[in-house]
Amino acid sequence: MNNPITALVIMGVAGCGKTCVSQALCQLSGATAIEGDTFHPAANIQKMSAGIPLNDDDRAGWLDSLCDELRRVDATGERPVLTCSALKHSYRERLRSALPGLGFVFLELTPEVAADRVSHRPGHFMPSTLIDSQFATLESPVGEPLTLALDASSHSIDELARQAYVWWVAHGLKLAS
């Protein structure tokens, strides 16, 4: 195997289930979850809370922080699983540059399902009015190396985590002995 996957990013638009899938996958694999939303600066959260989409400049420092955290967790010998929308190819490349062997699990769903899920998510800063802007920004990672696409609207969280786990094991996840 040329490029074993040493860490994962669970990616997709708001409402696709990134956090839930990451938590379930970490339970299966013993990996360490990194919640990307917790690295947003206050200005980004205020902007999104006001219904204003983030732009590349808004995301730059956030992505730098995520890269730093991926490297930090990896350096401890743990296997990181990062939740991050990673909507653009350039964002994914930035994350890949931080950690060789970074794989991506793309949780796909329709704008309608995403909007419905986000509208029923209590206490989160991302309003459902931003779903259209997320889909407008999304550059599909399908076909990129070390990327698995999963249908997030027709599988349970546990099934999505199981599929990601099986794929990760097949691509280099070292199981605890």
UniProtKB/TrEMBL annotation:
CDD domains: GntK. It catalyses: D-gluconate + ATP = 6-phospho-D-gluconate + ADP + H(+). It comes from the Bacteria. InterPro entries: P-loop_NTPase, Therm_gnt_kin. Transmembrane segments: none annotated. Keywords: ATP-binding, Gluconate utilization, Kinase, Nucleotide-binding, Transferase. Belongs to the gluconokinase GntK/GntV family. This is Gluconokinase. It comes from Pseudomonas thivervalensis.
